[in-house]
Amino acid sequence: MIKNCLFDWSGTLVDDFLNVYKATALAFNGLGLKAISLNRFRREFKLPYMDFWHKYLPNMTPAEEKVVFLSAWDTLKPSQLFPFVHLTLSVLRGRKINLVLFSSHDQDRLEKEVKLFGLEGFFREINGSVLDKVAAIKSVLARNNFAAEETMFIGDMTHDIEAGHAAGIIACAIVNQEAKFLYETMGKILCAYPDYLINDIRGAVGLSSFARKKRKTKI
């Protein structure tokens, strides 16, 4: 049985792909680069996100990226929470499952958005500004004394699944059917061999009762 559940933020709980693209395009323009198309951005964007930025600006530092990206991000209207997030988190908390946010999104913006959506009471920890989830996830488990076999990570990108595998926990891919755009196609994320695949966040409720670490994806 699952006792601990880590959630990615962007593309998992909040539908923010278009805002990330718009902020990136604005940042490119501010840096004197030609903004890439939406389709190209979707093909090329990846985590860790500095891998994407280094394709265009090899010498850019994370601090420099933060300044230009967040300056653009702060000009945009807030993104929208996916349906059923409040309900799902409420059910999981009612089952005494520890909930943790684990995201590459800027820590300050993440905390503000969590508060904006009324989610601040659900999470044991809010971890933002994670540059490399594969490298950072084990420290989250150790700090909270989470047993790997009792912990699941739900995310929408290959990097999320790789992080789950690296920590030896259950790695669940989510392909939100309500999303305007997905960060990655279903085919791409399946290549990372998630243990489970769910169509929206409600699937976490069922998985919390029986999910086990597997070698192959259960669809």
From TrEMBL:
<dbReference type="InterPro" id="IPR041492">
    <property type="entry name" value="HAD_2"/>
</dbReference>
<dbReference type="InterPro" id="IPR023214">
    <property type="entry name" value="HAD_sf"/>
</dbReference>
<dbReference type="InterPro" id="IPR050155">
    <property type="entry name" value="HAD-like_hydrolase_sf"/>
</dbReference>
<dbReference type="InterPro" id="IPR023198">
    <property type="entry name" value="PGP-like_dom2"/>
</dbReference>
<dbReference type="Pfam" id="PF13419">
    <property type="entry name" value="HAD_2"/>
</dbReference>
<dbReference type="InterPro" id="IPR036412">
    <property type="entry name" value="HAD-like_sf"/>
</dbReference>
<dbReference type="GO" id="GO:0008967">
    <property type="term" value="F:phosphoglycolate phosphatase activity"/>
</dbReference>
<dbReference type="GO" id="GO:0006281">
    <property type="term" value="P:DNA repair"/>
</dbReference>
<protein>
    <recommendedName>
        <fullName>Phosphoglycolate phosphatase</fullName>
    </recommendedName>
</protein>
<dbReference type="GO" id="GO:0005829">
    <property type="term" value="C:cytosol"/>
</dbReference>
